[in-house]
Design brief:
About 30% of the residues lie in helices and about 25% in strands. It contains two helices and four strands; from the N terminus they run ααββββ. It has a four-stranded mixed sheet, with no helix packed on it. A hairpin with an 8-residue loop joins strand 2 and strand 3. The longest helix has 27 residues. The protein is elongated and about 85 Å long.
């Protein structure tokens, strides 16, 4: 039944009840809370996945024992160097920081070591 038919039934009460059944809300307004709950569930799941994946980002970096072992560093690539030059609990990170006509400029900094030292 259309909205205009419902208005007609209200203004003309003499019409039969078969023509004017009880008005119900459109189905979409009743489903809105369920859709909102599903959206919130998806958002929480996405947040949890990102939170769990973030600490493993450095695990993707390769680790070498000497800085001389890094021969072909690409722009944005990060390598971990365990040569003992950083304080206890930290490891040196070498990154390809900037592209120049002569090659890639490297930056180095000490970052916290994640997990136990591997041999």
């Amino acid at each position: 039944m259309l909205e205009s038919d419902h208005q007609l039934c209200q203004t003309a009460p003499h019409l039969s009840e078969s023509r004017c059944p009880a008005y119900t809300d459109p189905p979409m307004t009743r489903l809105l809370p369920i859709a909102t709950i599903q959206c919130l569930g998806f958002c929480y799941a996405l947040l949890a996945a990102l939170t769990l994946a973030a600490p493993h980002a450095l695990a993707l970096a390769q680790q070498v024992g000497r800085e001389q072992d890094i021969v072909d560093l690409k722009l944005g690539q990060r390598m971990l160097v365990d040569d003992g030059t950083c304080p206890a609990g930290q490891i040196k990170q070498i990154a390809g920081a900037k592209m120049t006509p002569t090659g890639i400029i490297r930056t180095q900094k000490c970052i916290p070591r994640l997990g136990p030292k591997t041999k």
